[in-house]
């Protein structure tokens, strides 16, 4: 159990760092013009496509390695671990494909405005309206994630407290998951 926790912490740190850098770099909060919006969306699209390729490649490598590992595994626990890794590999490929081909909602708005027969004033007005709604949605999203992580953390800690002392590994694992989720909720209250 301690090995799993030791592996999860760096992954969570990496994901939170990536999410924070993307949020700061592509913040649309103060965007007022079509030109500025267009520039930010193009930068974000390039970054999403780069990350999408990386997810597809790493997911593919994880999938291949876990298929080979599964067929060489000797115990059911090893086979289960390799099956989970296979699922993560496929998930990585799918998520990478999504980032590369679809990305954020900004791409839809960008393409819609680009294809519409609008003057620069109308484009600017649409961008201002969109960025206002974007800001409101970001605040709602943040609150939802804080509440969700908090509830999962509390539930895991509660479940851990109810585990019999004969299952100390399970108790510690649940406490660790609870703590990780509460830390995630706390980090959301501090960032952006």
Features:
mainly alpha; 86% helix
List the helices and strands and how they pair.
Layout: H1 2-25, H2 34-72, H3 76-101, H4 105-115, H5 120-161, H6 168-190
Question: If you had to describe this structure to a student in words, what would you say it looks like?
Answer:
The protein has helices at residues 2-25, 34-72, 76-101, 105-115, 120-161, 168-190. With 192 residues, it is mainly α. The chain has two domains: 1-27 and 132-192; 31-115. The protein is flat and about 70 Å long. The two termini are 33 Å apart.
Distance between the termini: 33 Å
Helix content range: over 70%
Number of domains: 2
Number of strands: 0
Summarize this structure briefly:
The chain has helices at 2-25, 34-72, 76-101, 105-115, 120-161, 168-190. With 192 residues, it is mainly α.
């Amino acid at each position: 159990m301690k090995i799993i926790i030791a592996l999860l912490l760096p992954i969570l740190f990496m994901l939170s760092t990536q999410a924070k850098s993307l949020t700061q770099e592509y913040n649309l909060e103060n965007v007022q013009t079509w030109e500025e919006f267009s520039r930010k969306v193009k930068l974000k699209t390039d970054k999403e496509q780069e990350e999408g390729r990386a997810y597809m490649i790493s997911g593919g490598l994880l999938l291949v390695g876990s298929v080979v590992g599964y067929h060489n595994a000797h115990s059911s626990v090893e086979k289960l671990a390799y099956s989970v890794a296979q699922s993560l590999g496929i998930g990585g490929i799918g998520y990478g494909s999504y980032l590369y081909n679809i990305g954020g909602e900004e791409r839809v708005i960008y393409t819609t405005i680009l294809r519409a027969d609008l003057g620069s004033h109308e484009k600017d007005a649409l961008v201002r309206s969109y960025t206002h709604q974007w800001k409101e949605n970001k605040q709602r999203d943040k609150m939802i994630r804080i509440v969700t992580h908090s509830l999962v953390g509390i539930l895991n800690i509660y479940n851990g407290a109810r585990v019999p002392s004969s299952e100390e590994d399970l108790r510690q694992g649940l406490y660790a998951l609870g703590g990780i989720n509460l830390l995630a909720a706390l980090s959301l209250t501090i960032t952006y």
